[in-house]
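User: Please predict the structure of the protein below. I'd like the answer in C-alpha cell form so I can feed it into my own downstream comparison script.

Assistant: Understood. Taking the following sequence of 745 residues as input:
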Amino acid sequence: MGRWFTETVVDNGRLPLFFLLVSFVLAFLFIRFSVRMIRAEVSWWPGNVTPGGMHIHHVMFGLVMVLISGFALVAIANYETPVANCVLASVFGIGSALMLDEFALILHLRDVYWAEEGRSSIDAVFVAVAITGLYLLGIHPIGFAGDFDAYQQDRSLVTLALVLGGLALQLLLAAITLLKGKLWTGLIGLFFVPLLIIGASRLGRPRSPWARWRYADKPSKQAKAFTREKRFREPAVRAKIVVQEALSGRFGVPVPAPLAADDVDIPAFAPSQAKVPGRMISAIRWNRTRRRLRRPPVWRLPAILVTCSIVLAFVLVEVEGALEDADGVSVEGGIDVSATATLLAVIAGGMITLTGLVFTAITLAMQFGASQISVRVVPMLQQEAIMRWAIGMFLSTFVFAVIIASDLALAGDDTSPVLATWIAILLAFVSAFLFIALVARVGMVLNSSRLLRWIAAQGRTSIVRLYPGFDPDAEVELLPAVPIEATPPPIADPLGTAMTVRLTQLSPDGRILLAVDAARIQRLAAKWGVTVEVMPTIGEFVAQHAVLFQVDGPQLRVRRHQLLAALVFGDTHSPTVSPAAAIQAIVDIALKALSPAINDPGRAVQAIDHVEDLLMTIAPRVRLEAVDSAVSALTRIRGTRRTWTDYVTIATDEIRHFSVGSTQVQRRLRSLFLTLIDACPADQHPPLRARLDALDAQVSREWKSDLDIGLASVADPQGLGSELGSSGRVIPLVVGPRPPRPRSE
C-alpha cells in the first residue's frame, strides 16, 4: 500500500490533491455529525453560531476558507512550496465541504437543509468526492487525457480536425446522456467514454428533457422507459438514500412544533399502537402475488426451449464426432444411417405438422369459446402454461431432429448418432404426452360445466387469499352487530394538507388494477402519519392522469414512488386476481347462455349454482372485515375492498335483468336469495331482500296467468326441478328402518 501510494500519488505530484480529498471527507463527516447533534438538541454540544441572535450558516465559513486558500494557491503557483501547497489544499478541501454541504441552500435560496430538497447537497458532495478520487488516481476527463498528443507530434490540420471531431463527438454523447436524465452516467462517462456510448444509446428516463422531446408521441417507448425506471433505477435510488441518510441524517422528517392545548383538538393517534402488518411477511406475500399476476409473454418459453435444443444438438454432434475419432466407435448391429435419417425426418415432419395443428385448434377454440361461452375464454387459454410448453416442445423437437438429420446427411459417415437419436425419440414421446394434456385442457375450457367448476375453484382460492386468517368456528363470537357498510372516518390533521397521486406513466402490462399491497400502504401511512385512500377499485380500468391515491395529513415525508410500488396493473381482470373477477366470469357465461343467439337457461342455472357457492363463502369474511374496520380507529387506509352489497350486485343483478321470460332462471335466483338469507346474519339481509322484492315485481310484470306467476314465484335450487320447488317435497327421502309406531289404546 505504501509503495502504491508513493508511486501513484507522491511521485506524480498529487500529494496536495490527496490532502484536499482527505480534508474534504473529514470536514463533511464532522459537519454532518455536528448538525445531527444540534438537531437532536444534545446538551453537551456547542450548537449553532449565533452572534447577536443571528444564525450564521457554515457555508459562510466555507466560502471564506475557499477564497483565502484559492487566492494563496494562485499567489504561490510559481514557487516550489510543497508543504504550503498541501496545507492550502487541506484548507480548500475543508471550505469546499462546508460550502457543498449547504449546496441546496444556495440553489434554492432558502433553508431546505432537512427538507426533501436538501438531498441535492449530499449529491453534490458525492459528485465532488468521485471526481477528486478519479483525478487522484490519474484518470482525467475528456480533453485532459492526452487527446492532443497526436497533434503535438505532427502538427497537421488533418490530425487536429480528427482530434477536435473526436472531442466534439464525445461531448455530444455526454450532452445526450445528460439530457436523457442520466446524471451519474454522464459525469463518470466524461472519464470513461464507453459509459457515454451506453448512456446515449439507451432509452432516456421518463421525465427527462429527452423523453419530453422525443417520446411524446411514442407510448411504447414511454412505457418501456417507465418499466426500466421502476425495475432498475428506483431500487438504486432507494439504496443511495439509505447510504445518504446513514451519513447525513434523515431528510423530510418534520420537527413537531409545540401547540397550545386550546388551539386545536387533534384526535389521539399513536402509530406504534396501530396493528401494522409485519414488513417481511407482507413483502414475501406481495412478491408472490406479483409473480402470480405477471403474465409471461407467449413467445418466451418456446424461444428458450428452441434455443436450448439448438445448443444441445450442436453439442451432441461435436461430442459424438470426437468419440468416433478417438475410439472408432461404430453401430454395427444397430440402426443404420439411412434408417436413422428416415426416423429423424419422420420426427421432424410430425412435429411441425403437430405444431400447425395445435395453432389451428387453439385458434378455433378461442373463436368458439368467445362466441358461444364468454370472451374471457380467450385470455384463459393464453394464460395456460400447458399451451406454451406444448408449442415450445413441438418446435424444439422439430429443430433438434432437423439439425441432427442435416449433420448426418452432410457428414456422409457410416455411423449414426446413437445418443442424439435416442434423445430425439424421447422428445417425441414427451411431445405426444404434452399434446394429450393440451387437448384435455382445451376441452376443459370449452366444456361449460368444467369451465364453471374451474373458475369457481379459482374464485375460492382468491377468497382465501384476499381474506386470510378467517376462522369459521369463531365467527359468532367475533362478529358484533354493527352496520357492515360503516366506513372508518378520515383522521383529521389540521397541520396537513391534501395531496393526490396520479397515474402519470403508462404501465406496459396494462391499465387494469389487479392488486393493491394494502399491508405496505397501511405501514407507510402509519409511518408518515397520514391517511391514504385508494381511489380505484381492483379490476377497474385506470385512465392516464387519473387519481390513484388521496393522501390527507402532513405531506413532508410522503414518497410517491413508494405508493405507486404498491400497485400492480395488467390487461385483464382474471379469476386468479380477486373473487369479483371470478364472479364476473361466471356471470358472463350465464349472460351468454341467456342471449337470444344461445338461449340455454340450463347453463345459466349451472352458473348461478357456482355464484351461490362463492357468495356463501365470501359473506362471513366480508362481514368480519367490515366489522374490524368499523370498530378500529387506527385504520389509515380506505377504499381497497368491496362491500357485501357490491358482491351481491355483481353476482345477481345482470342475470336478473337477462332472465326475462325464463321461469327456470328466476326460480333459481329466488332460491339463491333465500338460501343466503337463511345463512347470513340480519345485517346482511337488506340487499338480498331488496332484490327479492325486485324479482317479485319483475314476475308480476312479465307473467299474466296464475300458473306462470305461481311457477316463477317459487324458489327452486334446480331451476325447474319440480312444480312447487324446494318447498313442495311432500314425501321426504327416508333411509333406514322406520321407527315403530306407538300402539293406540
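That's the full C-alpha cell string. The longest strand covers residues 547-553.
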